Amino acid sequence: MTDGGSAADRLLAQQARRESNARTYPRSLPLAIERAEGAIVEDVDGNEYIDCLAGAGTLALGHNHPAVVERMEALLDRGRAIHTLDLTTPVKERFVDELLESLPDEFAETAKVQFCSPAGTDAVEAALKLVKTATGNRSMLAFQGGYHGMTHGALGLMGDTAAKEPIPGLLPDVHHLPYPHAYRCPFGLGGEDCWQTSAEYVERTLSNPDSGIVDPAGMILEPVQGEGGSVPAPDDWLREMRRITRERDIPLIVDEIQTGLGRTGELYAVEHADIVPDVMTLSKAVGGGLPLSVVVYDESLDVWEPGAHAGTFRGNQLGMAAGAATIEYVLEHDLEAHAAAMGDRLRARLEETAATFEAVGDVRGRGLLLGMELVDPDGDPDSLGHAPADGELAAAVQSAAFDRGLVVETGGRHGSVVRFLPPLSISPSRIDEIGEIVHESVRAAVAGERDRTEAPA
């Protein structure tokens, strides 16, 4: 949608010269944004895109939602403080009220809230410190395919080894357990056998005195692995993890940073399985699009000394105002139910695409946290008969979608999963438009791949 002399190209070239090599999204999404509203972003050249990334799930209500903007403007117009460390304000107390109101009742009844530095990974770091302090233990249990952030401790929990290899020195003592990936089962099993075997493996490992795992300080898991490829954990497996950890007095940390506040079709993804964690990490949507992260945990774990965990920007009042407005809007308009309905609608369209093209191996996810795995139909299948993941084809689909006015990201194994995280407030007509663009983008990417492989050497 841009030529070599466009304003977007000039800004992107300037960004490349001045920003670090660690930048990610501009490499696959050559976008220089001028303005945004709802599910639409407009670049500096006037081109419009449907935003199916939405700040990696941060923008639950989309860009510049009136309820959020009005709350922030009111704070500024009244001369309120915007930075208060952990000193309280009416704005902060209102946020906590709304947050606790949104949480499952049994969890909220005994909950304590710790405000952290702004990013979700800071909440994960705080959760690690919390359970290690409370238990006196040092090792952690995490899962293959998991993603919990990019700071040192959170990085140690990650299942993707590629991100960890360049890091010098020892990462934290973490033991990675098999996550029940129905399509790419670590045990090569199908159906219920996969999650049942995963649960049995976890329980036997923790019961084995020769496992090499010292008493864990906690277990952390995502009820839907987001960056890992939109992989939902079966409800029965989540219930088994809760039973196993409770019987062994291992605090269970549920990372709801991407799933929390309605994205999966329930306010919190743990509600699908009706489990109550010991600790929940939250960020993204609860800040209403602004930087904010919290750890919510059972009061029995509240053994920190004053000042044991801090963060200069834990008093971000604009984030709390935006977050409270977002939570209120989600609750008042039952956006979790809307997300479930829109997720079903989009998934049905993606499954039509999967039925049309062999290169779409799997469609999965929950609510408006969906993924579509691209595969190489000519490659050697695995033990379940699934073709190998094709990250290059997924990148080609992403690029074709961008050319057609749709912003999506990729993730999962080898970057082979095209992921969908639109605002929870998205309309049915936009969902249909997304489905149509994705269908045509897969068609174009498959045709391009065919032309490449058939071209004479």
The whole-number mean of residue pLDDT values reads: 92
Largest β-sheet summary? 7 strands, mixed
The CATH H-level homologous superfamily of the largest domain: Type I PLP-dependent aspartate aminotransferase-like (Major domain)
CATH architecture of the largest domain: 3-Layer(aba) Sandwich
Low-confidence stretches: none
State the CATH topology of the largest domain.
Aspartate Aminotransferase, domain 2
Number of beta strands:
17
- Radius of gyration (CA) equals 22 Å
What's the CATH C level of the largest domain?
Alpha Beta
Q: Please count the helical segments.
A: 15
Structural class of the helices, strands and pairings?
alpha/beta
Query: Helix coverage percent of residues?
Result: 25-40%
Number of domains: 2
- End-to-end Cα distance, whole Å, is 31 Å
Strand arrangement within the widest β-sheet reads 4-12-11-10-7-5-6
Label the overall shape.
Answer: globular
| Strand percentage | 15-25%
Notes on the protein architecture:
The chain has two domains: 7-64 and 335-454, Aspartate Aminotransferase, domain 1, CATH 3.90.1150.10; 66-332, 3-Layer(aba) Sandwich (Aspartate Aminotransferase, domain 2), CATH 3.40.640.10. Helix content is 40%, strand content 16%. It has helices spanning 7-18, 25-28, 54-57, 66-77, 90-102, 105-108, 120-135, 152-157, 192-207, 235-247, 270-273, 317-332, 335-356, 391-403, 428-454; strands spanning 33-37, 40-43, 48-51, 111-115, 139-143, 174-177, 216-221, 224-225, 231-232, 252-255, 279-282, 294-298, 360-366, 369-374, 406-407, 409-411, 417-420. The strands form four sheets. It has a seven-stranded mixed sheet, sandwiched between helices. A four-stranded mixed sheet has the order 1-2-3-15. A four-stranded antiparallel sheet has the order 13-14-17-16. Helix 4 runs antiparallel to helix 12. The model has no long low-confidence stretch (mean pLDDT 92).
